[in-house]
Amino acid sequence: MITIQGKTVCAGVAFGPIFVFSREESTVKRSHVESSEDEIARFEAARAQAKDELGSLYEKAIKEVGEANAMIFEIHQMMLDDLDYIESIKNIIADQLLNAETAVAQTCDNFVAMFEAMDDAYMRERSADVKDVSERVIKILSGTGGGGINSDDPVIIVADDLAPSETVQFDKEKILAFVTEGGSSSSHTSILARMMNIPALIGAKGILLKEYDGKQAIVDGFTGTIYIDPDEETSAKMAEKLRRAEEQKKMLQQLKGVPSVTKDGQHIEICANIGNVLDIGTVLANDAEGIGLFRSEFLYLESTDYPSEDVQFGAYKEILSKMVNKRVIVRTLDIGADKQVDYFNMPKEENPAMGIRAIRICLQRPEIFKTQLRALFRASVFGKLAIMFPMIASEWEIIKVLEIVDEVKKELDSEGIAYSKNIELGCMIETPAAALISDILSKHLDFFSIGTNDLTQYTLAADRQNPDIGDFCDTHHIAILRSINMVVRNAHKNGTWVGICGELGADLELTETFLAIGVDELSVTPSAVLPIRKKVLETDVSQIKDKVLSKFLN
Ligand code: PEP
Ligand code: MG
User: Fold this and answer.
1) Left, alpha or beta for 312 (phi > 0: left; psi -120 to 50: alpha)?
2) Which terminus of the chain, N or C, has fewer Cβ atoms within 10 Å?
3) Order of strands, sheet of 200-202, starting from the edge strand that comes earlier in the sequence
């Protein structure tokens, strides 16, 4: 038995064979053909099949990840209709009597070189699309296509990390668990795993060996361990763990529809965090009371260019409509730091986590910000929208943001475009400065949402991306709990409500503490909603309050 330790991003236990996902590029065999006409016909058939495949992927992606993320497949389809591209391939076949695979590969190389030499960053990035599209045609021609999971049975997917275009190709029914060598808890794989509520591990160093392909394994998403070729004792232990987890899940189902109220009548709203439209299914299945954080930057991250106002409008409208009048808090784009987007062309920074990110980009480039705000305001008539702004550190930033919001409203008014007059506005509290001036900020805003991931990083000066920081990054640190308490006290004085949307919100060891402090809302990964509700129902705040607060307050 081989044991590999990773880090849990989604709990649970899965038994099954390993499928090592590799993205080897197909090697093209160069050969001469007798009839260029037959070879051109073969190329045309492969081109048609590739377009069909992309069409199906587009339809599938629209349903699963929304229109903005699906667009890439439509762009790839259009590339396959590009006359220069087609003519170049046909000319190589006709003039040199070369096989179609070679003609596609040579054309691809020429186009890639041409794009890469361009000044415009957007055009340079198109080279990756040409490679992707050509690779698809070559795979069809050489019979090595298929993509997705090469197995009839469900598998544990092992990969370095996965791109969205790769994950949407997988048949979800066939995925038992994800284990990646790289990745972070906000990587696409992690988000997908949490949304599907299947066990997932990241940082499992040493897992990516071809020899593991097909071997039986057990993923323990509670401890972050994968056992390859497990022995009988481990299998029996894990089977028992799985049985208990299933029992617990069934029991939690009974809490659906039950209000999240403590024994002594204190209500706390339990909402869900999402990264895209795809996640709504699990949000509703877990009976979240709303969406406390939609990380809208994923619309930008999964796109090859700035998502237009209409594309964004489509995504926001879909989420608001699906949530049927439950509150949806959309956080405006939080690009920068670990979430880099090439087409933003941001200068390289020494300390990107403390650089031009999130609201700083929006204030420096208001045209990008306004496009997003227009899309949000237009979509607001389809549900209960709230908007929040990330990485606020000073009052002037909020004043400026609110001025821009007013400008957008005036523009929409003059264009006769309707929007809701009841949109709540709030900001993230994720810098120590924002926590310290929360009394001032709260005068301008309806709500705060505490981003404990960044608040911890900045308060403790401990990089959240660094897996080796260990004990220095203590998420239960008194400084964090005191900050949360101070923010709630300051906010409530001005009638501003406070939620927590960082990972700490889902920490069951702190649910009592958050209730004792008087936090109004917790927004967590969808599968954590019901376990927290259970804890809330079991708590009598009047009984624990003094003891819990005395742990971090004098
Ligand atoms: C946070 O910082 O806690 C947060 C919720 O935002 P993100 O993790 O997206 O930075
Ligand atoms: Mg943050």
Assistant:
1) alpha
2) C
3) 2-5, 225-228, 216-220, 13-20, 155-159, 175-180, 200-202, 7-10
CATH of 254-552 given 3.40.50.300, 2.40.33.20, 3.20.20.60, 3.30.70.790: 3.20.20.60
Question: Does ligand 1 have an atom closer than 6 angstroms to the CB of 297?
Answer: no
Q: What is the pLDDT of residues 184-243, one digit of tens each?
A: 665 556 666 776 778 999 889 999 998 999 999 999 999 999 999 999 999 999 999 999
pTM: 0.72
State which of 334, 457, 484 you would mutate to test the pocket of ligand 1, scoring each by most atoms of that ligand within 8 A of its C-beta.
334
- Residues carrying CATH 1.10.274.10, the chain: 36-142
* CATH architecture for residues 36-142: Orthogonal Bundle (1.10)
Contacts for 100 with CB less than 8 Å, ≥ 6 apart: 39, 40, 42, 43, 46, 89, 93, 141
| Position in ligand 1 atom list of the atom nearest CA 457 | 2
Provide the residues around ligand 2 (an ion) whose CB is within 5 A. 430, 451, 454
pLDDT in tens, 238-266: 999 999 989 988 999 999 999 999 999 99
**Three-class SS of 409-420:** HHHHHHCCCCCC
